[in-house]
Amino acid sequence: MTLPRISLITPVFNSAKYIEQTFHSVFGQNYPNLEYFVVDGGSTDGTLDIIRKYEAQISGWISEPDKGMYDALNKGFARTTGEIMGWISATDMLQLGGLSVVASVFQAFPEVEWITGRPTLFNEEGMTYSVAPIPRWSRIPFLAGGNRYIQQESSYWRRSLWERAGSRVDDSRRNGNDFELWVRFFRHAKLYAVDALIGGFRTHAASLGLQNLDECHRIHDAIIEAELQRIPEGPKIKMFRKLNAEMKRIPVVRFAWWRLIEKPFLSGGWGAAPIIRYDYQRGVWFQDE
């Protein structure tokens, strides 16, 4: 069976310290139908020398000033044709065999349009040090404040979903716009969790997201508020978000509220897509309700 073409983008700006490891994690996939495009924002630290070193293994690359990572992603995706899409930033890495997971899941389930794997973290040196439990995802709990972090490094989608959601990432901000993309994806498709390793986020001192976590959360909240204005469930979700914030400020009821109300609701269990797991004895993926 012909493997689907995967279009993978790496946006980069002055990441000479890490990008070679990122490249190795991509090339080490040995995935035979990969369209890999690198978009550099005009690096001055040696990044371009590393890109040129590996350009024979890259489908294409450009280097020019841009408005940040999301602008770079739009430039890159506009140059690709693959049925499956995703991106890996220049400080992050794919897990071994991650693209094979992606391709085989989408082949096994034609109705699935959007997946994410187990969230994993790399340390500064590139060692995997955290593999989180597999979460379940659904739109209403997500908008209500649950499971805020869909790990971008482990998330892939069909081009058909990308096109229905507007065919671009919002590039009006320099932070938090992957969250805005997920909100738009949720309008059209369920997010399926895959019980496997696909990609991982590197924790390091220069991480834009970690440096500006409070700002990132404010952006998330603003995106959610805008989305709640346009959906029928919006008023009820806004009421829950307000009540939830108030209950967590009261020490004597905070734990009971979390245990009995917040956790069951926000865990995403109701209305969530099944978890996709692998049966190694039969060699097939299956959906675990």
In short:
The protein has 289 residues and is an alpha/beta fold. The protein is 37% helix and 19% strand. Strand 1, helix 1 (19-27) and strand 2 form a beta-alpha-beta unit.
Description:
With 289 residues, this protein is of the alpha/beta class. It has one domain (6-288): Alpha-Beta Complex (Spore Coat Polysaccharide Biosynthesis Protein SpsA, Chain A), CATH 3.90.550.10. It has eleven helices and 13 strands. 38% of the residues are buried.
Major pleated sheet: 7 strands, mixed
Strand order of the largest sheet: 3-2-1-4-9-6-10
Weakly predicted, low-confidence segments: none
The averaged pLDDT comes out at: 93
Number of strands: 13
Proportion in β-strands: 15-25%
| CATH class bucket | Alpha Beta
The CATH topology name reads: Spore Coat Polysaccharide Biosynthesis Protein SpsA, Chain A
* Number of DSSP helical runs: 11
Second-tier CATH architecture: Alpha-Beta Complex
Helix content: 25-40%
- How big is the Rg? 19 Å
Distance between the termini: 28 Å
Give the topology string: H per helix, E per strand. EHEHEHEEHEEEHEHHEEHHHHEE
What best-fitting shape do the alpha-carbon axes yield?
globular
**CATH superfamily placement:** Spore Coat Polysaccharide Biosynthesis Protein SpsA, Chain A
Broad structural category: alpha/beta
The number of distinct structural domains comes to 1
List the helices and strands and how they pair.
Layout (H helix, E strand, L loop, with lengths): L5 E7 L6 H9 L6 E7 L6 H7 L6 E4 L5 H9 L6 E4 L5 E2 L3 H11 L5 E3 L3 E3 L5 E4 L7 H6 L10 E4 H6 L12 H10 L5 E2 L5 E4 L5 H4 L1 H16 L5 H14 L3 H16 L8 E5 L4 E5 L1
Parallel strand pairs: 1-2, 1-4, 2-3, 6-10, 7-11
Antiparallel strand pairs: 4-9, 5-11, 6-9, 7-8, 12-13
Helix pairs in contact: 7-9
